[in-house]
Amino acid sequence: MGMAIPVAPAAPTAPNAPTAPRPVPAAPRWAVLAAHAVTLTTLPAALWRIGVACGLPLGYTEAGFRRIRGDGWEGPAWLVLLSVLTEAAALLTLVLVRDWRLFSPRVTTAIAGTGAVVLAALWTPFLFWWAVPNAAMTETGHLLVGFVYLPLVAWAPLLAAVTVNYHRRHRR
Questions:
Q1: Using CA atoms, how far apart are residues 157 and 40, in angstroms rounded to an integer?
Q2: What does residue 105 show for φ and ψ, rounded to 5 degrees?
Q3: In DSSP terms, which residues pair with 60 in a beta bridge?
Q4: What ranges do the domains of the chain cover?
Q5: 170 — alpha (psi -120 to 50), left (phi > 0) or beta?
Q6: pLDDT tens, 19-76?
Q7: How far apart are CA 145 and CA 139, in angstroms?
Q8: Residue 59 and residue 137 in contact, taking contact as beta carbons nearer than 8 Å
């Protein structure tokens, strides 16, 4: 029959020899849900802006509506572009809970952490929206816009939580 092939004993590994990268644990369910929730926080404001771009005043006075939309196509185009870019930025949160690898974990954590800080500075003031009158809007419109933009306040803390989880799962 066949001859047995002798197997050499495994060579001892050197103390500083590189080891195979350890597998990254999967994101916990709460982090996946939080990442998906981020995409929903941007949706009401995006849909509201698209409605304004389509010609619906959605709470603006006549003068306020003319000012926000402008006279040409640039105003509506800007509102749609802003909505698309905002939603795209929110969708990037999903990178933190998937096995996708765009950058090194350190760079990804730095970008996401910086994003959370910027978003907190940008959207947290909307907690006080109702305390500041807006002459360009009707009373009902001012109330509506407050509720439409309020979910954006949750974007920063949700992103921060998912970022911390990402960092913990990827640290060596």
A1: 14
A2: -55, -35
A3: 137
A4: 29-170
A5: alpha
A6: 656 788 999 999 999 999 999 999 999 999 999 999 999 999 999 998 887 777 788 9
A7: 10
A8: yes
DSSP string, the chain: -PPPPP-PPPPPPPTT---PPPPPPPPPHHHHHHHHHHHHHSHHHHHHHHHHHTT--TTB-HHHHHHHH-SSSHHHHHHHHHHHHHHHHHHGGGGGGSS--SS-HHHHHHHHHHHHHHHHHHHGGGGGGGGS--TTB-HHHHHHHHHHHGGGGGHHHHHHHHHHHHHHHH--
Global pTM exceeds 0.90: no
Residue 2 clears pLDDT 70, i.e. is over it: no
Which tokens go with 120?
A: 């907190």
Tell me, what's the pLDDT at 101? 82
Q: Which residue has the tokens 């949700």?
A: 158
Instruction: Check whether 159 has a pLDDT greater than 70.
Output: yes
Q: Which residue has the tokens 């979910």?
A: 151
